[in-house]
From TrEMBL:
Transmembrane regions: 12-35, 47-66, 73-91, 170-190, 220-239, 259-285, 291-309
Protein name as it appears in the record: Branched-chain amino acid transport system permease protein
InterPro entries: ABC_transp_permease, LivM-like
Localization per Swiss-Prot or TrEMBL: Cell membrane
Membrane topology category: Multi-pass membrane protein
Keywords: Cell membrane, Membrane, Transmembrane, Transmembrane helix
Domain of life of the source: Bacteria
Cellular component, GO annotation: plasma membrane
UniProt key word Cell membrane: yes
Pfam families per the UniProt record, alphabetical: BPD_transp_2
Species classification: Bacteria, Pseudomonadati, Pseudomonadota, Alphaproteobacteria, Rhodobacterales
GO MF term list: branched-chain amino acid transmembrane transporter activity
Amino acid sequence: MTMIAHTQSKPVLQFGASVLILGGALLVLASAPFWAGRAELRLLMEALSYLALAQMWNLLAGYTGLVSVGQQAFVGLGGYLFFALAIFGGIGVVPALILSAFGTAIIAIPTGWLAFRLNGAYFAIGTWVIAEVYRLGVAQVSALGGGSGISLPVDIARSLAEGRAEREMVMYYIAFAIGTASVLLVWGILKSRWGLAMTAIRDSELAAETIGVNTRRLKFSVYVLTAGFTALAGGFLFLQKLRITPDAAFSVNDWTAFVLFIVVIGGLGTIEGPIIGTILFFALRQVAADWGTWYLMLMGAIAIGVMLMDKRGIWGWIAARTGWSLFPTRRLL
């Protein structure tokens, strides 16, 4: 009887600990405008945006096996669509962000049709080429500043709130909503029938097809969904910068290489992995960003070290030894 009671209480304790950890983290982040300085607040905004980018890339690569090195295409499209809607369409900041995400998702449909004609490494390189095509195309649009880019009028940013402090607070809560929504969206998907199918694809695509999963349609749907949410985060990132250029918007280093590093060291195919990876990435950047090329070499060395330790990443290593799960998605029969 004692052994039975102990076995039954363990999941309850784990669930309680998860609620306590997640609730505490959300409370700290939600109250950040009241305790953090301006520099810390802007750093948190960027970190929350990168968290959203990492969750989307992880959903795409970690569960459907679509390793894209061209997600910067959707960051750039989201940023440019947001600027166009806000400047030329006279649309408010938040509606323009949302519409830019939907617009990018629509653009991702024909983009995906082209990319899905390729497989494996060819798909990865193809997404990079597509992103470059978008970069070159946007650079030819003189209304958007051409190759030199365009700045967001200060009046548009000021429309969020009157004072500077209030404006920073509103922008922070937009970033907080984007980061939190990305985690909840992935968690909700993985707990749904889509999640069961995606987990089956991750474990064995051939086996998933034999039990009736339409793997191509599911992968395409995830591709379009992640494109839209990536664009939402991209639009916000350039709202924060107040300026966008083709090179910055479609940068493979800033929006794909760093995101890939975050997911790989944190744990591919887990919800917790991108969270851990984002924390470590920004902590490393704060310490070593001024080291020049040594900083990039250090990042590479850390990624290699983590992969040698456990290819499942830091959270995968922790979960395998402890059984912890902050976002449980398993179903027990």
